[in-house]
Amino acid sequence: MADQNVPPRRPRDDRGWDGRQHHNSDGYGDPNASAPYGYDSPHPYQGGYPAQADPREQYGEGYAYAGQPAPAPRGPQWVGPEGLGRPVPAGSGTGLPTLDDDDDSGRKVGRRKAMVALGGTAAVVAGGAALAMTPQLRGIFGGEAAGDATASTVTDGTAARPSGQQPSTVRTYTEQNESYMGSRAGEALKKNAPAGGRTLSGPAAAAAATEVTVKTVLAKDPILHLARRATFGPTPEVVADIKKQGIDAWIRTQMEPDKIAPSKAELKLAELPTQKLSVQQLRTQRDQLNEQGAQPEREMVDATIARQIWSKRQLFEVMVDFWNDFLHVAADFDGGEVYRNSFDQDVVRKHALGSYPEMLIAANKHPALLIYLNQKDSRKDAINENLARENLELYSVGVDGGYKEPDVRQAAMLQTGRGIDKDGKYVFKPEQHYVGKVKILGFSHANNSSDPKKADAAIDAYITYIALHPSTAKYVAQSLATRFVSDTPPKSLVDRLAKIYITNNGLIKPVLMAMFCSTEFWAGVGQKVRRPMEYLVATYRTLGVSPEASPKHNNGDSKRTPYARGLRQIHDKLRELGHYPMGQPTPDGYPDVYVAWTSAGTMVNGWNEAGEIVAGYRTTFTYTAPEKLVAKPPATAGAYVDALSARLVGQKLSTREKNLILGVAGVAATAKVDATFNGAITAVARAILASPQHHLR
């Protein structure tokens, strides 16, 4: 009976995953917009991971991977936390697609060259290595008597590997981050990282006591620093709110998202028909939704993007994004069209600022995770290790957390019996549950009850144990510090946050507050680079794009509202950039360090999109005219650049950067200009959005 549950081969298993889309009339690709979504897969295998091509083959030598240094990126120059780096190599051959303002022979500084000099490789497409995994389900028990998974004699399959599976090749969230930081580029960043620090009585006190010593092009302004890290990008409104409330009060307000009123854009999410439907409603209304071209898993991503851009609950949305990488379940998997939105609402969003042990317990009882990692197919006579392994390797203690292969096997045996009933709800099936003693890390349980509630409770006890393990505390602390502080967070901070996590039984708010009260947080100005999604979302935010359709918009006979179409356009652009909410196909989530996201093509694509937004070409939303971004534009070019950069990135640019932007417009600093910058305002604004000051967070 070995290999009895190996999934049938499907055509798509042999292809590499490709996030790129093709253009359509909406301005972005959505070739399958009206394709029906299947709720009940004809295949017994619904989860697992799509095959993935080796990213090195797509992106060449610029791709860094475990154990080997990343060669110097080709094309536009390096812009890390210290700002502009080495010049563009001559004849690099990367090309800058669709930059519409080509060099003019009459200009001292060509627009394209100026853009390249300003910008930075803060983008990306290859993320972490995602080696395809094909689950193999083996292992047979004999009889119904209670077993002993801790015994020295193998009881569940071959002696070499009792469940017949191979160890996971997917790297953990922390492991993949560290693999990139081991490159030459990563070593350079480490030298500029903030050193150790201490915890003070409150965030404002910590900010006041911190001297920023790292090299960075960003203004060392604590309010701007907080707005960059605790939101998806500063806006004039956010900066004004922090100044009005004070740092401490603003953070406390953000820690209570339920008390913050929904924005107009969040209320408009009612225009996405699938987002308010239950799992059962999605199943029963499949035909009607197909006729509308409504895709639940895509609308969930659309809604997430809307909240990132327009929600006033910004810290909450940042944490939702963090957990979607840490406790990752891809949006696009067989079953995701029915269950992934429920996972978003009932697991991630419900617990994002709550208790991680409770989040992990809820995740392990949710159909989305049970399908995605094949737990619904695991039973006592055919063990599947996927979820048991990822619970240890990705979702709790981490790959270096102290567990061994016997721990994975015993955890997989303990977790049998968890499945989904015919109505799509979680159910515990005692007839499929292994009964017998288990020992996993320091957790042991007799697991000898035939009572389904007690057997299920034994699994919950184990999940709680690993969620509160010291290695999990360190793993969560390291990941949070990497997200909020720097790509190489100080060990002093990680250790303190891990201690707070253990002391507070896995509650997240105390850990976050301890981080905001640390001098390390406030010392890390400019030490994070925006990933592609963060860059694009921050661009929409700083330009003040409104969710209402432009008066010029013609929706034609589209079945979707302008708002829904506009969100899908952004979604498809993010797919093209290789980074969108819940987009990583494998369960390790996206990496969160700069050197994982260096791609000249993606960077230029982001600039081009920034130009589209500034110009207001996509009429599904309303845009502020670029000549109205500054209320009272100065009459000279140099002063206008200063005012516009203060409006868009919160500070003036360096003299060198300012001169490059003046070169984009082809004017001197003292030249007289009107509100349109003599017709060059769109190019000037886009150039500012290509600067390091906008790439950094």
What's the short story on this structure?
With 697 residues, the chain is mainly α. Helix content is 42%, strand content 3%. The chain has helices at 55-59, 111-118, 173-181, 184-190, 203-209, 222-230, 236-245, 247-254, 264-267, 279-284, 286-292, 296-310, 314-326, 336-351, 356-363, 367-372, 386-393, 405-414, 452-467, 470-484, 491-503, 508-516, 519-523, 532-542, 562-577, 600-615, 637-649, 655-665, 681-689, 692-695; strands at 79-80, 83-84, 147-148, 418-420, 426-428, 436-440, 443-445.
Q: Tell the overall outline.
A: globular
The number of helical runs is: 30
Tell me the strand order in the biggest sheet.
Answer: 3-6-7
- Beta strand count: 7
How does the helix and strand content classify structurally?
A: mainly alpha
- Tell me the radius of gyration: 26 Å
The profile of the biggest β sheet is: 3 strands, mixed
Q: Which residues sit in consecutive blocks of at least 5 with pLDDT less than 50?
A: 1-103, 120-144, 153-169
Helix content: 40-55%
Roughly what is the average pLDDT, rounded to an integer? 80
Distance between the termini: 54 Å
Beta strand %: under 5%
Overview of this protein structure:
By secondary structure, the protein is mainly α. It has 30 helices and seven strands. It has a three-stranded mixed β-sheet. The N and C termini lie far apart (54 Å).
Relevant terms:
mainly alpha, two-stranded antiparallel ribbon, 30 helices, 3% strand, disordered N terminus
List strands and helices in order, with pairings.
Elements: H1 55-59, E1 79-80, E2 83-84, H2 111-118, E3 147-148, H3 173-181, H4 184-190, H5 203-209, H6 222-230, H7 236-245, H8 247-254, H9 264-267, H10 279-284, H11 286-292, H12 296-310, H13 314-326, H14 336-351, H15 356-363, H16 367-372, H17 386-393, H18 405-414, E4 418-420, E5 426-428, E6 436-440, E7 443-445, H19 452-467, H20 470-484, H21 491-503, H22 508-516, H23 519-523, H24 532-542, H25 562-577, H26 600-615, H27 637-649, H28 655-665, H29 681-689, H30 692-695
Parallel strand pairs: 3-6
Antiparallel strand pairs: 1-2, 4-5, 6-7
Helix pairs in contact: 2-28, 7-8, 12-14, 12-24, 12-25, 14-15, 15-19, 17-18, 20-21, 21-22, 24-26, 26-29, 27-28, 27-29, 28-29
